[in-house]
Structure formats: structure tokens, C-alpha cells
Amino acid sequence: MSSSGARLLRSAALRIGPEILTRLAGFVLLIALARTLGPTELGEYAIAVAFAMILWSVAGLGIDRLAMREVARDAQAARTLVWDMSALKALFAVSGTALFVGGIWLAGMSDRIQLLVVLAGMRVTVSLVTVSVFSVFQGLERMELYARLIIPIRLGVIASQLLALALGGHAVAVIAAELAAELVALPCAYLVLRRAIAPLPVRVAPRGWPRLVRQTAPFGLQESLGVLVFRIDAILLGILATSAAVGIYSAGYRLLEAVLFVVYALAAAALPLFATLQRGGSPSLERALGLSLRVGIMLTTPVAVALWLLAGPLVDALFGPAYAGTAGVLPWLGFALVAIAAGHIAGTLVVVRLPGRVAVALTASALAFNVSLNIVLISLYEARGAAAATLATEVAVAIAAVLLARPLIGRLALIPVVRGSLVAGALMAAVTALLADHLLPALLAGAATYAVALAVVERSALRGAGALLREAMSPSVARGPL
User: Fold this and answer.
1) pLDDT, tens digit, 9 for 90 and up, residues 51-75
2) Residues 227, 54 contacting (CB under 8 angstroms)
């Protein structure tokens, strides 16, 4: 397990490290957006972002995950994939933006929402092409290149958005500034790819696109349905409730998203291992999944406890009294975060190793369940109902994903996976509840309690973590160039 664990930790550290830095800046942006725009305009902005994320998944075709898998298996695949995948994604993104704008016009949404969606669609188009480079880096496990690029790109985008707000701009100016920054980042990413990996000649072969689309269809359909599961609640809130309700919910959901990057980064780091390891091998597939789940649950549990017990003080401190309703949303979303960690990591294994129809069926069932719950619960409880539907859906997905993974890994020993997080989380909850009237002391004491308790309960596992991490960060663990 040492070699695979080192590779997993190295990729995860090089991906999560930059994400922590850029997400801190993004957290500042979130607060600025909420306080500057107000619930109604933030709700309109959130609707545009929801449409953009759906467009991202549809136009992305799932081709990035296919590329990571293929490059992980054969590094030479990057030579033929990178340009075709970029061109395909751009074509689908432009077409999808036009369809979305027509749809929201028919739905009678405001002119400002239509303009926001156009700008967001243009941003998605540019960003999808840039991400093709990151997929090559991930497949080759060259995450130091990812780290070198993503920090200036993300910070540049966030700085441009904050500047737009500081100059008196509103939602339209914020997305326009984001688009401008992405246009600067695009050529930089391809220049790094050329210099650090290999001079990949520009070669686009449209005749091969139908085959590529068929090959990536299971990934794309599953990813599109998955994003719908995450984003349909904001759209349904906009239809069944008000833009202000969307803003109340979006403020809480953006807090959730501020932490979700850890889950996505961990799953992306594990994907090459899930694609290549075998059950019972040395290293083994089951050990890689168990380690990934264990780390994901450990990292998300303290956030869930804090959002549960400190929802009111957190909302008041971050967003102000206009978002008081968000306090009723956060506890549901906090526990949904832990379920998302388990479901997304196990689901990544399912997508990579089982027939595509299995992942598609799982995600389609989750979407149907989520939409049904949202229609009922939003009508009764608005934003809080949407949050409750999210939690129920993610718990169901996590259970189903772990069960679907069993033919690949055998029986998963769940107690070692969750033991440390449960004990440390319970002790953190006790300390946090005692100090709940004092936000900063409660956060600090709760976090310290969780860390100490986790170190005690997981001491046998953590003893070898230092050596493993040192091995993980060694350049010898990385794969070479093409």
C-alpha cells in the first residue's frame, strides 16, 4: 500500500494545497457578493451559476474523466486527445449556451438573468478548454504542474471579480470580469503543457469525434445528471418560490461548496489508482478505496458539526441579518457534506470500473428522487426544504455507491473508515455546544478537540502517515513526461 498510498497522497496534497489557498480567497468573494448584491440579486446570480454548472457538465461530455483514465493507462494518449477534446467541448458549450438562453426566455425569466446566463456560458466555454490541460496533468500524476497553474489562475479570476464589486459593479460585471480573467488564463495553460510535458502538435480530427462522443457518453451522461442533482434545487426554488429564497439557500450552499473542493480533489487524486489497481493486489484496490473514504469523512465531519451547532452565529457574522433564513439551511447541508464525500469517492470507483450504464442508472435515480423531494419540500418549507432534500438524496447516493462497489472490492470494513471521525466529531460537538454563544472560541476549541481526539483514536494509522507523506512528496513518486 505504500506506493499507491504515496501516489494518492502526493496527488491529493498537490491538488488540495492550492485549493485551500484559492478557496480562502473565494470565501472572501462569497461574503462580498452576499453583502453587496443582497438576497434577491444574489438569487439571480445563483440561477445563472446553476445554469452554467449544468452547461459545464453537458458540454464537458465527461471527456475529462475519460482523458484522465486513458492517459493514466497510456501516457501517449494525451497526444491525440488534448486538441480534439478541447474543440469538442467548445462546440458543445457554445451550442448549449444558445439553447439555455432560449429556454430561460421561454420561461419568462428577466432580461438580466438572460444576460447573466450568456456571460456565464461564455466563461464556461473558455474554462472547459483550459481544463483539458489539467486533465492531462492529472492522468500523468504531474500535479505539481496543476498547482503551478491553478493558483495564479484562480486568484486572478477572484481578484477581477472583487475589483468589479469594488468599482460598483453588480452581478453582470462580476461574471464579465471572470470571463476576462479566464481568457487570459487559457493560453498560459497550453504554454505550460507544451513546455513541461511535450510539444503536442495542433491536430484536430473531426472525423473521430463521433467515436469519441460514443466512448465518453457514459461519463458525460452520468456527470450531467450528477450536476443536475446538485443544481436543480436552485432552479426549482426560482420557479416554485422567489429569487430571495434562492439567495437565502445559495448563501448556505456556497458555504458548502467552499469545502466540497476537498472531496473533489481527493476523488480526482484517487481516480488513476481506481483505474489501475486490482482487488487483492499489492497494492490493492480495496485499500485505496478505504483510505480515500477514511480521509474524505475525516476532513468533512468537523465542518458538518460546526455548521450544525453554529449556524446562527456564522450566518450573522458572515452575511448579516438579511440572510437570517440561511441559518435554517446550514445544518442540513453540513451533514449532506459528509454523505457527499462518501458517495462521490465511492461513485468515482463505480464510474471508472463498472459499465457506464450502472453509474448512469444510479445518478438518474438520484435525480428523480431529488426532484420529487424538492417539489414537495420547497412548496412547504422553501429554502429549508431544498436543503433537506439535498441531505436525503446524498445519503441515498452514498449507500448505493458503496453497495455497487462491493463486487470490485469485496466487503468493505466500515468501522475503521468511520471510527475516528465519529468519536472525534462527538467530542467536538460537546465542546462546541458549551461555547455556542461565542463564535470564535467555539470554532477554535471545537477544531482543537476534533484534532486531538482524532490523533488519539487514529494514532496507529497516523504513525505511518508522516513517512508516507514524505514519500508522497518525493519527485520520484511522480510519473515522467510523455
Assistant:
1) 888 887 777 777 776 776 666 666 6
2) yes
